[in-house]
Write a structure and sequence with these properties.
The chain has 436 residues and is α+β, with helices and mostly antiparallel strands. The protein contains 16 helices and 17 strands. The strands form 3 sheets. Strands 1, 5, 6, 7, 8, 9, 10, 11 and 12 form a 9-stranded mixed β-sheet that branches. It has a 5-stranded mixed β-sheet with strand order 14-13-15-16-17, with helices on both faces. Strand 13, helix 13 and strand 14 form a beta-alpha-beta unit. Helix 4 packs across helix 10. The protein is elongated and about 95 Å long. 37% of the residues are buried. It binds histidyl-adenosine monophosphate. Histidyl-adenosine monophosphate (HAM) binds next to strand 7, strand 11, strand 12 and helix 12.
């Protein structure tokens, strides 16, 4: 029987890996431009790192099992708890605010669908040790700038921003009890995807009063700063809770990125640990899930350190799956570049030795060099050079050897020249640039 890989796990053929490498390189370049340092953690973690902290949804999706030492372990479904633990371990010694990024592979047992797999890579950028909204603005700008670096503009992607503190004040002000907030958040999160009547029925069944149900649905419809201001007016605590959101939008505007940002109170985020500003980045066209999501999680380090470390924290995760689909759909995926600079051709059997000597010299000099791995006619070797989309073919025959030369054929233009063998590296260096 033909073997198959597991559903939701990807095989990266060279073209796929070229796109993945492009995504990783762009992620790292922008994170470094923002002066973030790279870290990593273990891919296998104790189960209890996630239970009770990340929220029910993610715990249901864990790849969890018992290891041979009878420990309950799981493949990491997200990076944030690992980061919080790592920082807690060295909280005293680390200079704050900590600005760290990582590109982990993550595993979630999800129902496989478009943009949702059982493994994915995620850029994580987090700031730990800073409570000011300037830090929230910094991260939001970084997320937007990552997408700009891929070639997306304000017409392509949108950052939808909210604040759980504001959401909480508005919901409580409208009759939602504190204990019912998680259920209210879950409903707000679903407002765009689920039927309104169904949501109303679910909330009523969960014990929400008619007034509280109305509040939940109304709050989830709030779009734009003016609407948020109007909703907050006169509601206890809501005006004060609006201040960070006002500051963040203003700061992002000062960076020239205001066009990308929209206040949207339907954004709550699915993970349990968020406490303040939350945001998601979406494509404006394809109806895909979020490319990126994040926010402030000021209580997580305290929980994970057993109370010994209490630092404000915030960050985002940007997945490679939705992003890769968008890059392909918009023609922004990199074209596969020619992999071979030089294909060496041995005219006769006696030329194979000199070809190997030259191949080794060219490789040492940094040229991607290939030759036939079995005896073949010169015509066949040249065909192979063409098939490999080599940039040039360099032939060695008895005449060339006698004269101390090689014959160089630039495959893009068909131009040929005889070059002194000793000068070949220099000629290739200048001509390969020139011939493109
Ligand atoms: P998240 O919203 O669960 O957040 O994931 C962030 C992004 O990762 C999503 O917007 C999505 O693009 C991608 N993603 C998540 N799950 C999958 C999947 N099964 N298949 C493909 N892509 C996926 C977090 O994980 C937070 N820990 C982010 C964070 C960092 N918050 C603060 N710091």
């Amino acid at each position: 029987m033909q073997q198959q890989g597991l559903p939701g796990f990807r095989e990266f053929f060279p073209d796929d890996l070229a796109l993945r490498n492009h995504i990783f390189a762009t992620w790292r370049a922008v994170a470094q431009r923002y002066a973030f340092e790279e870290y990593d953690g273990p891919p296998l973690e104790p189960l209890e790192l996630y239970t009770g902290k990340s929220g029910e949804e993610i715990v249901e999706q864990l790849y969890a099992f018992k290891d041979k030492g009878d420990r309950d372990v799981t493949l990491r479904p997200e990076m944030t708890p690992t980061l919080a633990r790592m920082v807690s371990e060295r909280a005293q010694a680390l200079k704050k605010p900590i600005r760290w990024f990582s590109v982990p592979q993550l595993f979630r047992y999800e129902r496989q669908q478009r943009g949702r797999l059982r493994e994915h890579f995620q850029l994580n950028m987090d700031i730990i040790g800073e409570a000011s909204p300037l830090a929230d603005a910094e991260l939001l700008a970084a997320g937007i700038d990552v997408l700009r670096a891929f070639g997306f503009g304000p017409g392509d992607v949108r950052a939808r921003v909210s604040d759980r503190r504001l959401l909480r004040a508005l919901l409580e002000g409208g009759g939602v009890k504190a204990a019912a907030l998680p259920a209210a958040y879950a409903a707000v999160d679903k407002v765009e995807r689920e039927d309104k009547k169904k949501l109303e029925a679910q909330l009523a069944k969960a014990g929400f009063s008619a007034g509280a149900v109305k509040t939940v649905l109304e709050v989830a419809q709030i779009r734009g700063l003016d609407a948020a201001k109007a909703a907050a007016r006169g509601v206890g605590g809501a005006e004060a809770a609006l201040a960070p959101l006002l500051e963040v939008t203003e700061r992002v505007q000062a960076m020239g990125l205001g066009e990308f940002v929209q206040v949207d109170l339907s954004i709550v985020r699915g993970l349990a640990y968020y406490t303040g500003i939350v945001f998601e980045l979406f494509s404006t066209q394809e109806g895909l899930r979020a490319i990126c999501g994040g926010g402030r999680y000021d209580g997580l380090l305290k929980v994970l350190s057993g109370g010994s470390v209490d630092l404000p924290a915030l960050g985002f995760g940007m997945g490679d799956v939705v992003l890769g689909e968008l890059l392909k759909a918009r023609g922004l995926a990199p074209k596969a570049a020619s992999r071979v600079d030089v294909f060496l051709v041995a005219i006769g059997a006696d030329d194979v030795g000199p070809v190997l000597t030259l191949a080794h010299r060219l490789r040492e000099a940094g040229f991607a060099t290939e030759y036939s791995l079995k005896p073949e006619s010169p015509r066949k070797q040249l065909e192979r050079a063409g098939g490999r989309q080599a940039r040039c073919a360099v032939s060695i025959g008895p005449e060339e050897r006698a004269a101390g030369t090689v014959r160089v054929r630039f495959l893009g233009t068909g131009q040929e020249e005889q070059v002194a063998e000793a000068m070949l590296d220099d000629v290739l260096r200048t001509k390969l640039e020139a011939h493109g």
